[in-house]
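hey team, just a heads up i'm posting the complex here instead of the shared drive bc the drive is being weird again. everything in one block, sequence lines first with there labels, then the predicted structure for the whole assembly after. its two chains so it's a bit long, scroll down
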Amino acid sequence: MNRKIEHDAILETQESFGETTLIADPEQILNLCRYLKHEEKFLRLSAVTAVDWYPAEPRFEVVYHLHSIEKNERLRVKCRLSGADPQIDSVCEVWRGADWYEREVYDMFGIKFLNHPNLVRILMPVDWEGYPLRKDYPVHGYKYSYPEEQ
Amino acid sequence: MKRVLDEDPVATLSAPAVEPENPAAPRLMTLNMGPQHPSTHGVLRIMLELEGETIRKAVPDIGFLHTGIEKECEQKTWQKVVTLTDRVDYLANLSNNLVYALAVEKLLQIEIPPRAQWMRVMMAEFSRLNSHLVWLGTHALDIGAMSVFFYCFREREDILRILEMFSGQRMMTSYIRIGGLALEPPRGWQKAVGKFIRGFPGKVDEYEELLDANPIWTRRTQGVGFISLEDMLDLGVTGPMIRAAGLPWDIRKSEPYSSYDQFDFEVQTKKENDVYARYRVRLGEMRQSAKIIAQALEGMPEGAWQADAPHVVLPDREKMKTQMEALIYHFKIVTEGFRVPAGEVYQCVESPRGEIGYYIVSDGTSKPYRIHMRTPSFGNLQALSVLLKDSLIADSIASLGSMDFVLGDTDR
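-- predicted structure starts here --
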C-alpha cells in the first residue's frame, strides 16, 4: 500500500510480499474497525481467523483480512492475545459478515468474542470438548489417544 | 454425534411450542429442511420458520461435512498439501490447487515460466466450466427441467476426459503443483482441447434455448431471490451473485494472477439481481471461459512447464537416474520436503463461486504452520437467512440453487 494509515490503535505497520499488516491494540479493535470501514472505505471483511503460537506468549493472533473494492486494496489487521483467557470485542456490528468467521475462530481456537450475537460452535458438534486448531490439540483428537500419550 | 433439536443452540427459533395467547397473532410453524434434502446439494440443514407458505426466518446449520482439512494441512509437507486442496471444493479443484500454489510460490519467491502460467489459466477455466455445468444441470433439475441436466453432464464428461488426459485423474487432479505443473502436457492435447472448444459455444446456445424458451423456467426464476448489494457486501458474498447485482468485481481483472492480464475477456454483470440474472451471469461466464481457453490454445507459449528451482520441483526421471545432484534433490524433497522461508501471505483467486483466499503462515520448516482457507461457499452461505427471509417456501429451492454453494467448501 502506498499510503500510511494513521490511528491511535495501531501499534506497528509491517510490509511484506507487497501486503500491509497493521498490528493493533486488542482493546481498541472495534474503534479501529469502525474507522477503517467508514473513513478508509474497507467495506468488505474477507475473513477473520487466528494463529496459535503455543507455547509463546502472547499466544494467539486474531487476523482480519479487509478488502476495499473501490480502492482495490487489501489490508491485514492483527491483534495479539494472551493464552490465559483469550477474548476480544466482536466486530459484528461493523461488518455483519464477521458473525460466522468469529464463531469459527471460537470453535477452533476457543477465543471469546465479546458482544457477539450468537457465539456457539459452528463446524464442530455443539457438545465437542476442546479446540481442534490449537497447537496442543492432537491431530487425532483426545478420544482415540494412544496409550503412551496418556 | 449428538444433534438433538432441543439442545441445539443454532436452532433456537422464536416459534412458540404452545398456542399463542393472542389469537390474532400469526401462527408460526417450524420446518426442518435437510440435512438430506436433495436441493441442498450436500448436507446443509436449514431451520425454517413459516407463516403459512412464507418463510419468516431461516437459520442455516453447517458443519456436517467438516473434515478438519486445515488441521490436516499442518501435519503434511508443503507439496503434499496440494492433494488436500483438491478436496475442499471438489467441483473446482484446480482453482484451489492454483491459489495454494500461488501463495506458496509467493513465500518462496520463485518465478513460474509463461507456459506453466498459461496452462494454469487454461486448467482453471476448465474447472470453472465444469463447476458451472454441474451447477446449471442440478439447478435446472431442482426447478423441474430434467433434460438440461443430461445436456450439461454430456459436456462435463468431455471436460473430465480432458482433465484425465492431462493429469490421469478425472476429479481430484492435483495438476497444479508448487513450482509448475504435475506432469508435462500430454501429446496431442491441442487436438483434444481444440475439438472441445470449437463445439462448446454452440452447446451453451443449446442450454440457453432449452431454458429461455421454457415459460416455467422464466417464471420460477425472474423476480425471485432478491438480496440487496449492500447486504451482500456486508455479509461477505462474492462471485457471480455480486456480479448479478451489477457490481463488475472479478479478481481475475482487479488483481490479475497467473498472467490473466494477457487474456481478453469481459466481466459479466446483470442489474436485475434475481435468480434469473445469476443464471445469465454464469451462462455468460461459460462463454467467456471458452474464449479464454481458445486464446490459451492459440497462443500457448513454448518452453519449460516447471520453474527452475531444483530444491522445490522434483527432477526429471531421466536426470534423477543419471545425475548425482538430481538424485540428492529428489531424495531430500521426497523424504523431508522443502523448507519455505518464514512469513505470511494472503493470496486470492476468482473461483467459480467467488473469492478463494488462502492465508498461509510459515515458520521456516518443511510443513505449513497455519493455513486458513477463506472459501467462497462459507461467505456466501452467510447471506442465506437474509436471502430467504419473507420469500415463499417454493421459491427457496430456486434461491438456494442460485447461490451455488458446495458444502465441502463450506465446512472444509
